[in-house]
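Aim 2 progress update. The chain analyzed this quarter is reproduced below.
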Amino acid sequence: MDKTDILKLMDVGRGPLIVDGGLATELESTGCKLQGDPLWSARLLHTNPQAIKDAHYRFLCAGADVITTATYQASVEGFTRHLDITPEQANQLIMSGVTLARETVKQFMADQPPSDRRVPLVAGSVGPYGAFLHNGSEYTGAYAAEMSVEELKAWHRPQVHCLVTAGVDLIAMETIPSVKEAEALVELLREFPDSKAWLAFSCKDGQCISDNSRFSEAVQLASRSSQLVAVGVNCCPPALVKPLLDSARTQRRPDLGWVVYPNSGEEWDTYSGWRKPENRISSIAELSLEWMKQGCALIGGCCRISPAHIAELRRQIHGDMSGSDASQRGQGRP
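Predicted C-alpha cells:
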C-alpha cells in the first residue's frame, strides 16, 4: 500500500484510525505465560500461532482499524539463541507474524463486519534493540551511547527485511527510546523505498523521550523522512500525550500525522507486577477527543489495553456501537 492510500485511510474527516491494544496483555488474559520470557509474545509465533490469530481477531471485533504483528520482540538473533533454530527458520518465523495477521483480517472481512468499517491494515511491529536485550533498556536507551548508527541499522535490517518481504501495509517502529536509534531506523527505511512507517517513542515525561532528548528534536528528525506517515508516542502514561504533542507541534510537518497509543497508566513493578496509582487515571477513550483536536491520525493502546478498552475508544470516537460486540464475536477462532 502506497503512502497516498494510507493517508486517505487516515483522513481526519472520517476520524482517526484506531490501532489495537496490548497484544501481550490479551494473550496473557487467556493463560499464555509471557512474563520473564526473553522473546515475550514473539515466542508464540513458534509455539501457539493460533493464540495470536485469536487475539488479533478480538481486537478487530472490538473496532481496531490497524493490528500490529506479534514481532515486537522478534529478531533473528533472538530466535536462533532462544529457540535453537537456524537463521533461515528465524526469518520465516518473523514473516509468519505477517501471515497470521493477514489471514485474520481476511477472515474478519469474510465474517461481514459493520458496513462502515475500513479494511484493516497490518502494521509490522519493530521494537527497539533494548527489547532484545531484555533488561528494560527500551525505556532508557542507554545502549545507544555504546553503538553507532550503522551498528543499529545492521541489527534492525533482518527484521525489517522480513516484514517488508512478507507484505505488511506499513511498519510500526515503536517504543524507540533514543534519537540515535530513530535516526538509524529512518536511514534503514530508505533501503526499502516502497515502504511506509510510523515512528513512536517511549517517553519519560511531558517533554522528553527516554534518553532525555527533547521530543521536539525527535519529531524534527521524523519530519525529514518522506516515508513516515506518522510520528508520536507509545507505552507512556496517557496523561503525557497532550503535553508531548504540544511541545513539538511546530516541528511536525503538515502532512505527517500524529500516532499515539499509550499504556493504561498503571505502573510496572518487577516484583509485584502492575500497580494502579493512587489517583484515578483518565482512560484513553476519555482523552481521545482531546488528542483528536491536536490532529491525531492514529489512536490506540499499548500495555494493559484490552479489546474492551478499544471498543470503548471506538464508541467515543465514532459515536456508534460497532465495536461493542467484541466479547461475543471475538470468541470464535478465525
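Confidence is low (pLDDT under 50) at residues 321-329. The two ends are 24 Å apart (CA to CA). These observations will guide the mutagenesis experiments scheduled for the next reporting period.
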